[in-house]
Every structure is written in structure tokens, then in C-alpha cells.
């Protein structure tokens, strides 16, 4: 009898120990993730040359990460899921560290003065659904690596200075519903691979230097401006 209750007690302690180890382990992972997010956002902040509205003032170590302006975290984990810096009169380039915010579902940088390249590291964001870069001065090409954002439904890069072809690889974005790249300096042909995207409903291409015809497979579009 006594040995049995001893056994139960020691099992109970072993259990406690296990639970303790496990939660330390989980907390460790969570904190590591949070630290990666913090580092990434501070890298993004460090590239901002002009922030007249003081949006990123709260991006400092005395404020909890999930309370930083323009940031929303997931409810279960304290990881950044939304980055909304739209209409903030920011002058900046976009740090490649953005690709480390691995829980991001939503990025809106619309209507600022972002310039430089769209970092190909964005291709690491497999949960990203919305990417709005419209009304900025992004130059260079649309990175082919964007094709790895397999959850992407909405890509709006209207009104930038993007050049060269629309990458063939964008045909891999099998959940894409809106492709808006009007008012850029894109050239070449519209890739026929876009015809592979059965979800595509809206496509905006006007005011570029694109050649060729819209693939017949895109006949089901709800709206287009080409
Ligand atoms: C951190 O952000 C808060 C909220 O915006 C601000 O009041 C505080 O002055 C900031 N601290 C530093 C050191 O910038
Ligand atoms: C984050 O991304 C940068 C640049 O893309 C990389 O050099 C760095 O090692 C990454 N850091 C972490 C903590 O993942
Ligand atoms: C970009 O500017 C156009 C024209 O000024 C405006 O209609 C559109 O809503 C703006 N979009 C974003 C995302 O700021
Ligand atoms: C391109 O995307 C892949 C897949 O997400 C990623 O492993 C790779 O690091 C990205 N390339 C760059 C230059 O970031
Ligand atoms: C875009 O194209 C126009 C006309 O072809 C040209 O004048 C302008 O310099 C180009 N802009 C960029 C950023 O390449
Ligand atoms: C996607 O489109 C390209 C070009 O139209 C075609 O060669 C390829 O077989 C298509 N892939 C799939 C999976 O449908």
C-alpha cells in the first residue's frame, strides 16, 4: 500500500517535472519567435528615413511588441500577423528582414514613399495573404520569389516604378484573386502561366508597356483593366 502511494506520488512529481519542462520548452520557442519578430521590425524601422507622423516611435523596448503602432499579433501566440503602415508618409526602403516575420498574413505599405527593391525574402512568408505596396516608388523587378507565397490572394503594386517582365513564376500563386500592377514600367508579354490560376478574378495592368494578349484561360475574370 505504502509503496503504491509512493509510486503515485513520485509519478505525480515526475509529471509535474515533465509539464514544467514542456512549458519551459514551449515558452522558450514562443519567446524566441517573439525575439525574431522584434528584431525584424526594428530592422524595418532602422531603414525608415522620414516618419513625420511618428508612427514608429512606439517601436521601442519599453512598449510590448504587440502594442506597437501598425502591428497586430495573433491571439494564441504573440507573433506578428499584420503589418499596416499605409498612408503614413514614410520615406524608406523595405528591409529584407520582413521575410523573418513568418506569421505575417497581411502587409499594407500603401501610399508612402517606399523606394528600392521589393525584397525577394518576402517569398519566405508562406502565410501571407495580402500584400499591398501600391502608391510608392518601388523600383526594380517583381521578385520571382513571390511565387513561394502560396497563400497570397491579393497583390497590389499599382503605381510604382517596377520594370521588366511579370515573372512567369507568378502562375504558381494558385490562390491569387487580385493581381494589380497598373501604372508601372513593366515590359514584355503577359505570362500565359497566369492562365493556370483558376481563382484569379481581378487583373489591373494598364499604363505599362506590356505586349501580347491576355491568355484565353483568363476569360472568366470579373474585372480587368488592361
Ligand atoms: C517608447 O514609446 C512610447 C509610446 O510611444 C513613448 O512614450 C516613449 O517615449 C518611447 N520611449 C523611447 C525610449 O523612445
Ligand atoms: C533575418 O533575416 C536576415 C536578412 O534576410 C538574416 O540575415 C538574418 O539571419 C535573419 N535573422 C533571424 C533571427 O532569423
Ligand atoms: C493610390 O492612389 C490612388 C489615386 O490617387 C487611389 O485611388 C488609391 O486608393 C490609392 N491606393 C492606396 C493603396 O493607397
Ligand atoms: C525565396 O523563397 C524561398 C522559399 O520560401 C526561401 O527559402 C528563400 O530564402 C527566398 N529567397 C530569398 C533570396 O530570400
Ligand atoms: C518608365 O518609362 C518611361 C517611358 O518609357 C521612362 O521615361 C521612365 O524613365 C521609366 N521609368 C523608370 C523608373 O524606368
Ligand atoms: C501553367 O502554364 C504554363 C504556361 O501556360 C504551362 O506550360 C504549364 O503546364 C501550366 N502548369 C500547370 C500546372 O497547369
Describe the structure.
Belongs to the RLP family. A hairpin with a 6-residue loop joins strand 2 and strand 3 (80-84). The chain has one helix at residues 2-46; strands spanning 48-50, 71-73, 80-84, 91-93, 106-108, 113-116, 130-132, 137-138, 154-156, 163-164, 178-180, 185-189, 202-204, 209-211, 223-225. It has a single domain (2-225), classed as Leucine-rich repeat, LRR (right-handed beta-alpha superhelix) (Alpha-Beta Horseshoe), CATH 3.80.10.10. An eight-stranded mixed beta sheet has the order 2-3-5-7-9-11-13-15, with no helix packed on it. The chain has a four-stranded mixed beta sheet with strand order 1-4-6-8. The chain has a three-stranded parallel beta sheet with strand order 10-12-14, with no helix packed on it. The longest helix is centred in the first third of the chain and has 45 residues, at 2-46. The chain is an alpha/beta fold and 226 residues long. It binds 2-acetamido-2-deoxy-beta-D-glucopyranose (6 copies). Residues 171, 192-193, 195-196 line the site of one 2-acetamido-2-deoxy-beta-D-glucopyranose.
Amino acid at each position: 500500500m505504502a509503496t503504491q502511494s509512493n509510486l503515485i506520488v513520485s509519478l505525480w512529481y515526475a509529471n509535474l517535472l515533465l509539464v514544467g519542462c514542456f512549458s519551459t520548452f514551449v515558452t522558450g520557442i514562443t519567446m524566441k519567435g517573439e525575439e525574431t519578430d522584434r528584431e525584424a521590425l526594428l530592422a524595418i524601422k532602422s531603414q525608415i528615413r522620414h516618419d513625420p507622423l511618428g508612427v514608429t516611435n512606439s517601436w521601442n523596448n519599453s512598449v510590448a511588441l504587440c502594442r506597437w503602432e501598425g502591428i497586430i499579433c495573433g491571439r494564441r501566440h504573440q507573433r506578428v500577423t499584420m503589418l499596416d503602415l499605409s498612408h503614413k508618409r514614410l520615406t524608406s526602403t523595405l528591409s529584407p528582414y520582413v521575410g523573418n516575420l513568418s506569421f505575417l498574413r497581411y502587409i499594407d505599405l500603401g501610399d508612402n514613399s517606399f523606394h528600392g527593391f521589393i525584397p525577394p525574402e518576402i517569398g519566405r512568408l508562406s502565410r501571407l495573404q495580402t500584400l499591398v505596396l501600391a502608391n510608392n516608388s518601388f523600383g526594380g523587378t517583381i521578385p520571382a520569389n513571390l511565387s513561394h507565397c502560396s497563400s497570397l490572394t491579393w497583390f497590389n503594386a499599382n503605381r510604382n516604378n517596377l520594370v521588366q517582365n511579370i515573372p512567369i513564376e507568378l502562375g504558381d500563386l494558385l490562390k491569387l484573386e487580385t493581381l494589380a500592377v497598373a501604372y508601372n514600367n513593366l515590359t514584355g508579354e503577359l505570362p500565359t502561366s497566369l492562365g493556370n490560376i483558376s481563382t484569379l478574378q481581378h487583373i489591373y495592368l494598364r499604363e505599362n508597356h506590356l505586349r501580347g494578349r491576355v491568355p484565353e484561360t483568363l476569360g472568366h475574370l470579373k474585372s480587368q483593366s488592361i
